[in-house]
Write a structure and sequence with these properties.
This protein has 214 residues and is mostly helical. Helices cover 82% and strands 0% of the residues. α2 runs antiparallel to α3, α2 runs parallel beside α6 and α3 runs antiparallel to α6.
Length: 214
């Protein structure tokens, strides 16, 4: 493959990583705001998870930036530290969601509305699918395991959005009690796996991740 083509595709991968960071930042702000305003635990947790993904995304962006300059063997100190901070943030999120869900069930509290969760999840599903498809395509074109691994992580975020959509939509239509709390527990399960994966990658400094990460 000609060096010019390689650099063009790496540049596109870099742009995709910037879009990922930018989108997750906006999604995090909107989700935590409406999650707090509407007392929607699942949406609030989804937003905090988005902020954690921003930290991870910054590490990915830095990694691709280095790939544009030389062949990589392992993650550098900046990327490892970003993963460690991401892991801590996700573990704190898990603890908060579990406690929040327990208190919500105990006090029989329900969200005012989950319409914002429906809108956010639908937009997230469309965005994450686009990012997954484009990242996977450019990763295969470059025969790059780090980039295709990042694509698989994005696909897991795509699935996570369906949990928010399901819990939000069910409550909007049928007003089933505790469905928001159950949705937040589903998000906490994914966050726990993400946190463990972040710490594993930071410890081994490997460039790839398995299909269960995000």
């Amino acid at each position: 493959m000609e060096q010019k083509i390689i650099q063009e595709r790496l540049q596109f991968a870099f742009i995709l990583s910037l879009i990922t960071v930018g989108y997750n930042t906006i999604e995090g702000i909107i989700s935590t705001f409406f999650g707090a305003t509407d007392d929607t635990l699942a949406l609030f947790g989804f937003g905090v998870d988005s902020f954690a993904e921003v930290l991870s995304g910054i590490g990915i962006t830095h990694m691709i930036w280095r790939m544009q300059r030389s062949e990589l063997k392992q993650r550098d100190h900046f990327e490892v530290r970003a993963l460690q901070v991401t892991g801590v943030a996700l573990y704190i999120l898990v603890a908060g969601l579990v406690v929040g869900a327990a208190l919500s069930i105990f006090y029989q509290s329900e969200p005012q509305t989950t319409r914002a969760g429906v809108v956010v999840s639908v937009v997230s599903i469309a965005t994450m699918y686009f990012l997954y498809r484009e990242k996977m395509k450019v990763g295969k074109q470059l025969d790059s395991e780090p980039i295709t691994s990042d694509a698989r992580c994005t696909l897991t975020c795509f699935y996570l959005s369906f949990i928010l959509l399901a819990s939000s939509l069910i409550y909007v239509i049928w007003r089933i009690p505790y469905v928001d709390a159950i949705g937040s527990l589903g998000i906490s399960w994914f966050a726990l796996k993400e946190g463990k994966e972040a710490f594993d990658k930071a410890k081994t400094k490997r460039l790839s991740c398995d299909s269960n990460c995000c």
